[in-house]
């Protein structure tokens, strides 16, 4: 097993969920069992997140353009989540990234641990956002890699197995850039007790999420206090608003709380790309979106500081955004 880099953060033993699945323990280890209020229940499949046809925005006639644009604007205001179809990204590329990601997660543990995610960091293989020995764990393995801009890359964490991993990732990121995270959720014998990924909003401006073909339906978003599953549409990409866009639009577009649940028999792979401003950028609500009816809701802050705050706290719904919230009415 590769040595785990020294860290002052004590996170205790983190069992690898794929190894746990193989061992088939009689009960789920306590660290994965959620408190009752947090446990997933059967979500209502009655509502579907909007689907936007990107080709109508790019090459449609004027009427199609306006209809789709107004759908997009409603999706951002009312849902914060939508799927895009006809996005122009080659289907083979979408398949190839799923293939190398699956091949990586199926490697023996020792091989994957050559790229360890150090406690308190977000790149490499393991579980991110774990900061204490008491914290509940997600039923998920992650491989997260900074891809663009170039200087955020940590080449030591880029797998050399499968052999075409880096090449495929480069091609994928030329189309979809940013920090990329691959989440692998093995089946779980008690999906009612655990969460695949804790509820959170994304700290990015915009997130692009690919649900791998054949994966379990695991992504759920919180809308009007109800968890709604995101039904996969073949070759579509799921787009969601992150915290940065909520701040820039002064809350007109909201980042939406979401989570992943597990399945008793099926596994799930998601490939997620986070677009965010550069660390040196200072931002706050756009002045055009602040007036008497919509007073300034967020302070101005440095995105690097926000990112640091995000990655040094556990995932807990929309709590991280409180960093930027103004409690009293103020003019920006
Ligand atoms: O697996 C999923 O669909 C959820 C992934 C996600 O929300 C994330 O990686 O931020
Ligand atoms: Fe997310």
UniProtKB/TrEMBL annotation:
Keywords linked to the UniProt accession: Iron, Metal-binding, Oxidoreductase
UniProt domain Fe2OG dioxygenase: residue ranges: 175-277
InterPro entries reported for this sequence: DIOX_N (IPR026992), IPNS-like_FE2OG_OXY (IPR044861), IPNS-like_sf (IPR027443), Oxoglu/Fe-dep_dioxygenase_dom (IPR005123), Plant_2OG-oxidoreductases (IPR050295)
Record flagged with keyword Metal-binding: yes
Gene3D superfamilies listed in its UniProt record: B-lactam Antibiotic, Isopenicillin N Synthase, Chain
Signal peptide: none
A GO term, aspect molecular function: metal ion binding
Pfam families: 2OG-FeII_Oxy, DIOX_N
PANTHER family: OXOGLUTARATE/IRON-DEPENDENT DIOXYGENASE
Family listed: Belongs to the iron/ascorbate-dependent oxidoreductase family.
The protein, known as: Fe2OG dioxygenase domain-containing protein
Species name: Aquilegia coerulea
Species lineage: Eukaryota, Viridiplantae, Streptophyta, Embryophyta, Tracheophyta
